[in-house]
Specification:
alpha+beta; 182 residues
Length: 182
């Protein structure tokens, strides 16, 4: 039987209800990899005929998690950033995304002076997913045509987040661009 977006949503709901913390999020990561093995889903959600940009595929009104399709026309390299009080799981579908993870060296938790150290870098290939827990600092770098599915713990349009300027040693508050509706 083919694993569909509907199957993923039901299984993610069950996982997050049973395990509200990191164990549930890890289960969502594994489920997303299972969903990305369904080529029909990949073709429909982020395939060549899918619209460019970011759009919501699903938003859970009770648990708050959001499933987003990212179809990237241009290459992009983000600065280090976090997702504030939310978590995120990135599932690569087409091409790759280079991920870097950072640790904050200063005692700060908010905007202002901030020093970071890169602790890990790796490449997400099609079919693989990576998890970035609450407060985790990471950066993404992807080529033209890269496509991925991202699951966030809540709609990031309503979550205060930070981005980091390593050269200046600063963290600043950011807001997300609004994603299109499902």
């Amino acid at each position: 039987m083919t694993y569909t977006l509907d199957n993923f949503i039901k299984d993610a709901q069950a996982a997050l209800r049973e395990h509200a913390g990191p164990a549930g999020r890890e289960h969502v990561r594994v489920l997303l990899e299972k969903l990305l093995a369904n080529q029909q889903f990949v073709d429909e959600a982020v395939g060549p005929s899918a619209p460019m940009g970011t759009r919501k595929l699903y938003e859970d009104k009770d648990l708050g998690f959001v499933v987003l399709a990212h179809c990237n026309a241009k290459p992009h390299k983000s600065p280090p950033h976090d997702h504030g009080s939310s978590w995120a799981v990135y599932g690569q579908a087409v091409k790759h995304t280079d991920m870097s993870e950072y640790r904050r060296l200063d005692a700060g938790t908010g905007a202002g002076e901030a020093r970071l150290e890169k602790v890990r870098s790796y490449r997400l290939e099609p079919g693989h997913a990576g998890i970035y827990d609450v407060g985790a600092i990471h950066a993404i770098d992807y080529p033209e045509g890269s496509r991925f599915v991202r699951v966030t713990g809540r709609d990031l349009d309503y979550v205060q987040r930070l981005k980091f300027d390593m050269a200046a040693g600063k963290a600043v508050t950011i807001e997300s661009a609004t994603a299109g509706s499902a």
